[in-house]
């Protein structure tokens, strides 16, 4: 059941500390802190990685591809529906990683099948034991988020990000102690975000039919979270929302920015730099209300209307915390608007047609 929450989505957002703990369990060696994933025995370091996924899982893949690239493996995230094996060079040195919560998404399954027949090494990262995608691949990594009922993916996104962090460390043998230490603290950090979040106040202020659109911006590891924040809001509130890497603002979207386009800016880690603050000032000087989700302990040197704080942590993991705040923003805005939160119109939990 909903364990006393009004919606499955809210329950699942609050499940995240437990979901992350389950994902980590038994996978971080106590002695030297190295990552060890039993299921992945025999998986060698690939020459390159292709992620294939849809929707929220694609956003997790963008995040994962960056993790692999940072560890020296050329990696690209593809929308599964756009993955064209015939035209993309692929061989046994290529690991094709299908990221799919349900393990039943038709486009992702089709991409994995093609990758298999082209001779790639395939890996499925899934939440559902025995799902079609987990049977299709050479290797499976389960994210262990527990059942997710709400159509909007929430805890599975966090668990995918954590699982991909583990996978990148396990495959490359690169164990960054600071990140691993921060991973251990992540469930507690998520819990403190949940305990202290005041996003219902932000939602009450901006859930307004007078608004034209909502924008979400971020850089680096925070860019996929900006995309995800927008997807979550549009999916359950039916408001027009767009997310993009902040650097893209000046290349088009800025034309839409007015006092009726609230902008949510994820300002974490390296993205706390000048450039991001410059992007914030670009929108606020056009009158847009700005909400900054940030781990900065210092006041931001930019013109923002609200600061939504998150605990300071490893720069790669901070966006996971920021995302929890954005999930709550979407939830409370949809609730203000009286939407059907767990079952948004026109959408299905699992998309089994191409
Ligand atoms: O089960 P999958 O992870 O393969 O699903 C992919 C998408 O259909 C899914 O993430 C969808 O975008 C969610 N409803 C977003 O909240």
TrEMBL record:
Catalytic residues of the enzyme: 349 (for fru-6p isomerization activity)
GO cellular component term, pick one: cytoplasm
Domain of life of the native organism: Archaea
Keyword Transferase: yes
UniProt keyword Repeat, yes or no: yes
Protein name listed in UniProt: Glutamine--fructose-6-phosphate aminotransferase [isomerizing]
General function of this protein: Catalyzes the first step in hexosamine metabolism, converting fructose-6P into glucosamine-6P using glutamine as a nitrogen source.
Gene behind the chain: glmS
All copies of domain SIS, residue ranges: 36-180, 202-344
Subunit structure: Homodimer.
Interval of the full protein contained in this chain: 251 to 604 of 604
Keywords: Aminotransferase, Cytoplasm, Glutamine amidotransferase, Repeat, Transferase
